[in-house]
Amino acid sequence: MIRPVKILNRSMVLASAPFLGIIIWMISYQAAIIISDQTMPEPTVIEQAASGVEQTVADLDLAADLAQATQASIKKQVTLYNKTNADIELIADTASSQVNRPRIIYDRRITKKLGSASGTIQSDQLRAQLFSIQAQNFSGYALKVKLGNSDAMKMVLGNDKFGSSETTMSAVKRYGAIAGVNAGGFADGNGKRYPLSTTVLNGEYLNGFEPSFADLFFVGLSEDNKLIGGSFSSKEQLDKLKPRFGASFVPILLKNGSALPIPTKWQVSPKRAPRTVIANYKDDQLLFLVIDGYNESGSSGATLEELQILLKRFGAKDAYNLDGGGSSSLIFNGRIVNKPSDGQLRSLPTHFLFFK
User: Fold this and answer.
1) So where does this one cross the membrane (predicted)?
2) Would residue 43 count as lying in a domain?
3) How far apart are CA 189 and CA 315, in angstroms?
4) Are 227 and 252 in contact (CB under 8 A)?
5) CA of 242: how far to CAs of 86, 153, 223, 246, 353, in Å?
6) Which candidate among 4, 138, 264, 344 keeps its CA 20 to 30 Å from the CA of 293?
7) In the sheet that 179-182 helps form, which strands lie side by side, from edge to edge?
8) In total, how many domains does the chain have?
């Protein structure tokens, strides 16, 4: 039988065993807390780290300097680029002005020959200038027109119908045009008034093509807005010039600045009369002459030879006589400029109109 004292002793030993084990382990292992020298970096390692930091700082400073230098270089390049662009624009403007200078000089020269404009209408589409003409034997008007695009001038039919007619003023008002001049000749029949011979409107032949005869010519504008005209024996011949619109009458007055012979009939029948002429300059500006006068004896107005002389003096290149007499009509800025020999404007089948 185990005694109670022994049991107690054994229990105490068992209870204290863990603590005794720990004490024995600490004594045997010398578990004093000692900081090993190896846990601290060697002085050389610290120095290397410090050196690396210094190098990094130096590299950053160098990068900052490089970035600053690059920024300054970019600013310099941008400034140089802007200056170069400005210089190029200046050179382009100068070149453009030099290119246009001959045209400006030429325009001043031909305008000076016409005198001082009594009226000017100008827009992006056109410039129309009105001048008075005072010659020894007649008086009249000149209309110089510089077309900016194909919308600036067109030919229209009287009341927009083939065989119908109206005055140039009526056509101007209907279309809201800034100016108008009578166009080709006409023939009456069955109570209607038809354009004479070959007539083109919007690139289409109104009544087919008729070969030129009896000194007739065709005159109008091409698709590229240039004056075209002359005698044509075939439709193909005229088609090559790509007519946009045009009408017919007689005779041709100038070709390439030279006067052409006036047919005998047109020298005397009538000798003097109101006249309407369409012409052009070397720079493709148009010139219209509308001459006043007329009585049935033909003792007032201009002869065609006089108009040839006047046109050459004005510097015209090609010129064509349009329907005259009572048909001569010039409308500018809403008013009738010329003095119609019939006492009022004649009703006509074709009109040249100008648009702002």
Assistant:
1) 12-35
2) no
3) 40
4) no
5) 43, 16, 6, 11, 20
6) 264
7) 153-157, 350-354, 179-182, 330-332, 335-336
8) 1
Say if 149 falls within a structural domain: yes
Residue 155: which domain range? 116-354
Work out the angle at residue 311's Cα, subtended by the Cα atoms of residues 133 and 304, and round it to the nearest 5 degrees.
90
Flag whether 300 is in a domain: yes
CA atoms within a 13 Å half-sphere pointing along the CA-CB vector of 36: 3
DSSP 146: E
Residue 215 near residue 191, CB atoms below 8 Å? no
Per-residue pLDDT of the chain (356 residues; tens, 9 = 90+): 445 444 434 544 444 555 555 555 454 544 444 444 444 555 565 566 566 667 776 776 776 777 677 777 777 776 777 776 676 666 655 555 566 789 999 999 999 999 999 999 999 999 999 999 999 999 999 999 999 999 999 999 999 999 999 999 999 999 999 999 999 999 999 999 999 999 999 999 999 999 999 999 999 999 999 999 999 999 999 999 999 999 999 999 999 999 999 999 999 888 899 999 999 999 999 999 999 997 655 568 999 999 999 999 999 999 999 999 999 999 999 999 999 999 999 999 999 999 99
242 assigned to some structural domain: yes
C-alpha distances in Å from residue 186, one per residue of 14, 23, 48, 84, 162: 146, 141, 110, 62, 11
Q: How far apart are CA 231 and CA 216, in angstroms?
A: 7
How far does CA 333 lie from the centroid of its chain? 24
